[in-house]
Amino acid sequence: MVPAGNAILDTVVGPLGLFRMANAYLKRTGKVREDVFSIDLVGLSKEVNYYNGLFQIAPTKTIEEVKKTDLIIVSAISGNIELELENNQGFVPWIQNQRIQHDAEIASLCKSAFLVAETGLLNGKSCATHWTAHDLFKKRYPQVNLIPEKVISEDNGIYSSGGAYSFLNLILYLIERYYGREAAIWCSKVAEIDFDRKDQSHFIIFNGQKDHSDEAIKEAQEFIEGNYQERLNVEALAERFAISRRNFIRRFKKATYNTPLEYIQRVKIEAAKKRMEASTLNINQIMYDVGYSDEKAFRKVFKKYTGLSPIAYRQKYNREMAFA
């Protein structure tokens, strides 16, 4: 599906190329005689311009011409989400109809999860999207179960991917589902895409959600961010801002989508990540610098929010360690 307005061209071209590759592989190996999928680029019109007219796509069909399909891949929208949703509202009833009337499976790439969520088909289901959009997505679609750490989410025939080029992992996942694992592995090797990557946690940069109107909670967030090296606890924070513990936790989670404890942990781990990326300090020293004294607890929390152990994270992102 080719969105109108501000969208990501690669998420149109990439899936098209990989599905064509999978079709060709099965025919070349003699497993099928005809393409598994007949592939169309479906738009609201027959011409779509991207990047201020630098690139043009000519969809092969409009939504009016596609009466029934088995799979819809929704390419990624970007920029001002509300504006792009408005630009692409014409797709909403078409997606609903294909799902409800014809049981089409749906795959959203990156922030196109917003467009699929507009249909209501994600209510009560799990979904992934780009980590930079998590807070907005949760605020806009509280009935959807957002899975922040996942590169790929599947829930009853509705698929979604995390951000940016992780859409390639979802396409390989779909190729494995429809063409078989052998074809998916072959496509991954030819296209040189890392196979079976399922977690986006270590890509996430935690900035804290401050787009809210609860000033006391904003002050608490700033206090945590300025004093993360200390041993912070929820009771002391609630007392400091003259709020009952129960009310403090409730207001904090409503405003930031994190409990106070989660927020403290994430600020500490983000600080630890930056030290691991930029310094040669040993991991224990970094652990102490961000306010942890229990090595086991630090490793557990670090892996919870990054998907990697502290050692693996340092080896992956510290230049000196990577080339050691």
Q: Give the low-pLDDT segments.
A: none
Question: What structural class results from the helix and strand content?
Answer: alpha/beta
Give the overall silhouette: globular
C-alpha termini separation = 45 Å
* CATH fold category name of the largest domain: Rossmann fold
CATH superfamily of the largest domain: Class I glutamine amidotransferase (GATase) domain
Count of DSSP-assigned helices: 15
The main pleated sheet reads as: 4 strands, mixed
User: Class of the largest domain, according to the CATH hierarchy?
Assistant: Alpha Beta
Observed structural traits:
15 helices; alpha/beta; single chain; 324 residues; Rossmann fold; globular; 9% strand; two-stranded parallel ribbon; Arc Repressor Mutant, subunit A
Question: Can you lay out the helices and strands and say which pair or pack?
Answer:
Elements lengths: L9 H19 L13 E2 L4 E3 L4 E3 L3 E2 L8 E4 L6 H7 L3 H12 L2 E4 L4 H6 L7 E2 L6 H7 L4 E2 L5 E4 L2 E4 L5 H13 L1 H11 L23 H12 L7 H7 L4 H12 L3 H19 L4 H7 L5 H12 L3 H8 L1 H4 L2
Parallel strand pairs: 1-4, 5-6, 6-10, 7-8
Antiparallel strand pairs: 2-3, 9-10
Helix pairs in contact: 1-6, 1-7, 6-7
